[in-house]
Amino acid sequence: MLKNYFKIALRNIRRNFTYSFINIVGLATGLASCLMIVVYVQHERSYDTFHPDSERIYRVGYEVSLGSGSKVIASSPYRLAGALENDFPQLARVMHFSRLYTDQVTYGDKVFRETKIAFADSNFFKVFGFSFIAGDRETALDHPNQVVITDKIAQKYFGDKNPLGKTLKIGAPYSDEEMELAVSGVIAEMPSNTHFHINLLVSMPTGQSVFSDNLRYNWGWDSHYTYVVLPENYEADQFRAGLV
Asked: CB-based contacts of 212: which residues, under 8 Å, 6+ apart?
């Protein structure tokens, strides 16, 4: 029975080849487009959902009134994280990080160009669940002169050698000096479905030693990004109301 159906279908296709070709191509294009849209939407909706407590992680920015409306600014001042810890002791975690706009990393006599570098405080790996390969995620960013790198960077710089304890030099911001940093941890390369794409994370205590007073104390210098983890049974609207 099925064999006869196939024969009839093939005869019809041969008899009306142009019409059949257009219909088949249209159907295939439609199905392929639908599949691509489904894959794209699934990927977009998966962003940063792999972190523990991802539903309770929020970035704190601010809204600026403009003549024709308003604009939400994602960045925030350096001082905001400390202020939130003091004013909202009920928060489970507060974390902040800052992009490091330098591109030179030195290991021994080798110089590398890197653009994905940031300062991050000790709560970074307690808020975000990026996979640790070597080192202690609880203390890897606790002290001055520490840096956590991805496995891709470790392979690029050190080959098969153990990267822990190796010294890297990175240009300090707003200065001609270099920061000497010991590798304190190695993480897996950050996945594509995260808004973080960082290869080297320098401990915030290192940054505090090189940040200018203007950056540390000026509420108008919004060069950092601040995140909070809300406690269970605490709604975002409650937290937002307390910020006003």
From this structure: 174
The pair phi, psi for residue 133, each rounded to 5°, is -105, -40
Q: Return d(Cα 198, Cα 190) in angstroms, integer.
A: 7
Q: Which of 214, 19, 223, 212 is nearest to 118 (CA)?
A: 223
Nearest C-alpha neighbor of 195 from the set 81, 74, 79, 80: 74
The predicted model scores a pTM of 0.84
More confident residue, 76 or 217: 76
Burial of 223 (0-12, 13-18, 19+ CB in 10 A): middle
Count other Cβ atoms within 10 Å, centred on residue 65: 8
Residue 219 token pair: 């509420």
Each residue of 144-195: pLDDT tens digit? 999 999 999 999 999 999 999 999 999 887 777 889 999 999 999 999 999 9
